[in-house]
Amino acid sequence: MARSGRRGGRGGMSARAGNKIEQLPWSQTHLPYTPLKVVTEEQLEQIHRTSMRVLSEAGIRVMSETVMDLFERAGAIVDRDEMTIRIDESIVAQALETVPQSFDMVARNPEKRITMGGSAMNFGLVAGPPNTHDMINGRRPGNHEDYCNFIRLAHHFNAVNIIGNQVVAPMELPANTRHLDTYLANLTLSDLTFHCTAIGRGRALDGINMMAISRGISIEEMREVPGVVTVISVNSPRLLDEAMTDGLMAMAEHGQPVSITPFTLMGAMTPVTLPAAMAQQNAEALFGVVLTQLVNPGTPVLYGAFTSNVDMRSGAPAFGTPENTKANIIAGQLARRYRVPYRTSNANASNCVDLQAAYETMMSTWGATMGGANLIYHAAGWLEGGLTASMEKFILDVEIIQNMKEFMKPISFGEDELGLEAIKSVPTGGHFFGAAHTMERYETAFYRPLLSDWTNYESWEAAGAKDALTRATELWQQALREYEEPALDPGVAEALDAYVIRRREEIGAGEP
Amino acid sequence: MARSGRRGGRGGMSARAGNKIEQLPWSQTHLPYTPLKVVTEEQLEQIHRTSMRVLSEAGIRVMSETVMDLFERAGAIVDRDEMTIRIDESIVAQALETVPQSFDMVARNPEKRITMGGSAMNFGLVAGPPNTHDMINGRRPGNHEDYCNFIRLAHHFNAVNIIGNQVVAPMELPANTRHLDTYLANLTLSDLTFHCTAIGRGRALDGINMMAISRGISIEEMREVPGVVTVISVNSPRLLDEAMTDGLMAMAEHGQPVSITPFTLMGAMTPVTLPAAMAQQNAEALFGVVLTQLVNPGTPVLYGAFTSNVDMRSGAPAFGTPENTKANIIAGQLARRYRVPYRTSNANASNCVDLQAAYETMMSTWGATMGGANLIYHAAGWLEGGLTASMEKFILDVEIIQNMKEFMKPISFGEDELGLEAIKSVPTGGHFFGAAHTMERYETAFYRPLLSDWTNYESWEAAGAKDALTRATELWQQALREYEEPALDPGVAEALDAYVIRRREEIGAGEP
């Protein structure tokens, strides 16, 4: 410790050869503070009222006869020619009555059970990029090996609570069956819950079935505590396509949670003003929430938000902006108004893992966490506006997540912590390094960072002057070396393999 | 705009040749949200009560007979042998009655008047590093040319509201008169208020006199609206040295504001527990606040905070940590309890301008801004734990400050902004790029970043694949080219020169 015996710091990994990566233990983080508010209660009601008029006057277009039937039976005004559904507030209110305020999810490891709702906070692996990047191998189209490595990293780092939709697309595998390969990787290389691809019923059902097999339970039993989740994106403005609604219905029928997430970039998919964007997002999200309850009352559902802005000079999407940060907080206010668990993201728009990637991610992360999000999707590895999954960004994000988790850790306030005697025990101008009060606590007193290097300049320079990006490159490689595959019952492994083989044959050249 | 005419984005400065740097206009930012709370009201009282016992039972050591006399007259228990002053809560309470809840400051440009107090928020240039660094010239000891360039940058960018104590030390100039050179640079190269070095009375008085000359008023008249501020650091634990108290008294006698800032790194200068650190910081800060009011009741004063932690493995200071972030917020709760304007910082511990510098600065910035700080000191340019002023970090910080200022910008909530008609005017699955509602607002709808590049990957690569650090290097050079020295009345310039020449002779080889 410190002055009684400096260890030469930790300037780079070389000084720690043989040391395993330190990280926070697995835990369910809770927001211990009052969530931030960006708009007043009256402004929130203005957004609500506007969104209700969007639903009753403009409506949502849905490319599905089944959905139109469901809404018609619920009392909606359905325009079959235009495939547009208009609902009034009473239909929304009735659906909200059956939405669970909170639900749990678990995969095959009961210790990694997570809660969606209340003050619980969970972070997800980035989902959906076609490309992957790291500083060793460069930028390349997604492939199965990279996919597996990301799942290993997500399993290794406790900061990641849930696997999102296809961290990178394994482009070399057939498009109609690659979901089977990714589910199998999720279930064998990790013990986390994951996102089912819900483009069509088949992909959703395969995820549900395989998760049930891995837990050794039936899909009926999995209604009790769901094991998979899906995200239904609204094609904003006001459009739900058929494949998405089919996936939504498959999940809801089986009691598995759905996040309804309008993709609402201000100036492109919504009006350019934030109140209007929030009103449109709210209308679209609540419409999806209603649909889940019409399919199966009591279906766990998340109020999803993805409102940011575009660069009005180029039309390119921007994330981690001040407007995105406000939207993350307002969406939390709305979700709490309706008592629906809340999902958002903490994206950035940088093309490489640089200062911009860090500060934009921090902006959106603060909006998401202090906005009261229960699920922060895309939280680890998102780069290039979501077009690339990055290994170094993953490490940066784990550090950011760990910092936020520690910021959320409640402070003990006993007499010992208030420390009057400790203060009095050290003379003026002295120091507390060797004090008994310090010695008893110093090993666990403060957060120990994953990526930050706190050595002084001279030690840092002597250790190679490695910047955080260089250290991140070392850390993901070290993590892959230290990764241990979670043990899986051989019978379960066989059953999963058999399922995949059978389904691959069934699907053939068709769609799942 | 966007799809009707892409301009190829702004991937790097080359694409903008001839374009001046865009930035936010000068403005007084206010926190429009409820400040964050990390501790409950009861916990806040526990910190308060503990700090009162520190003051009455342990006391503060002060190396000044004058200060001991002042406190003795106020009813304190003064131990002359130990030079220790013990005060009870009634003395603190009485002093707090005369502390202004808010005060204004201004230099020679009345449009750049700033408020310290209430919800007002101001950002300061980094203060005190012995070294400077940029990516063109590398790391070097501070010098007068670099000093002047930082003042030019601070003047150029509206994000910076106030100049801190010696942004870099001009090491080549004589130590006993270099404060005159730096004040002269502040007053000729910028029109901002600044920090007087208060190591001894002479340096403080020179700053007060020169600011008064530059404003064309007497130092008596400058009591109305102060023009300079100083920071008095407590040598924690519980020690105030004589030079600092002399400077404090000189400022207070002339009605110029003082920030009392204990330097409290947990585990080194305070106990390792956060409640104890806050109690000790609170005792030390309030002691200094009392001193200002004993010298001159009504002296403007800031409650200063600088509580972070050390790396318990190396003893090195750490900033932008979760503990630092919590401390920034708790200190705000304390300052508001006492109705004293609040100063803190948003430091980081990185040795270079990298991911770590960005995310640590963001952590501490969120704690400082949402903690309700009125003055965020060291906000632009801080690197290496305060040992280096960095040009690229300055640009990064201006971007961070601008992001926070935009996040603080209130949202308009009229019918037009709620945009029901705009939403209804675009068909499902369409887009809002060309909508009238968009066209009327798109130029000012969103924050336009200084440093962020939102072009897509291909455009970014084609423009040289410049990361944010490279762009920052270009931006500070461009800013120095675009910088315009603010006009100064020739009579004032002459008077300032004459003052400096006279004082240089007076000081000679002695101390000012």
From TrEMBL, chains A, B:
Keywords: Methyltransferase, Transferase. This is Methyltransferase. The keyword Transport does not apply. It comes from Tritonibacter scottomollicae (Epibacterium scottomollicae). The keyword Iron-sulfur does not apply. Residues 1-21 are annotated as: Disordered. It is an enzyme of class 2 (transferase). Belongs to the trimethylamine methyltransferase family. GO terms for biological process: methylation.
